[in-house]
Amino acid sequence: MEENQAATPKKPLNKTEIMTALAEATGLTKQQVAGLFNELAMLIGKNLGEEGPGVFAIPGLMKIKVVRKPATKERQGINPFTKEETIFKAKPAKNVVKIMPLKGLKDMV
User: How confident is the model at residue 95 (pLDDT cuts 50, 70, 90)?
Assistant: First the structure.
């Protein structure tokens, strides 16, 4: 019986549980914790947006970086299967978000 209970994975905290735990640990209200998360999200959005530097660091935990990949041009080539000339479609521009853990986060796990 004990083996079955130990084998069941623990569930991750949901949003409400995270807010409650932080409110209890810091002595803030849940509304203040929610406001902090909203402001943090806005700050990250500004820094990662078009006019921002494209990098945002949460000290000791992680660095969030945006890599902007430009669109490619339409090109002509040969289909390797049919050996016929064909036009390959252009790929659209895209933004890739990368998150790098910093030493503090690596040491926690």
Answer: very high
- 8 Å CB contact between 65 and 100: yes
Q: At 16, phi and psi to the nearest 5? A: -65, -45
Q: What is the pLDDT of residue 10?
A: 87
* Model pLDDT, residue 5: 55
Q: What is the 3-state secondary structure (H, E, C) of the chain?
A: CHHHHHHCCCCCCCHHHHHHHHHHHHCCCHHHHHHHHHHHHHHHHHHHCCCCCCEEEECCCEEEEEEEECCCCCEEEECCCCCCEEEECCCCCEEEEEEEECHHHHHHC
Tokens found for residue 24: 């209890």
What pLDDT does residue 69 have? 92
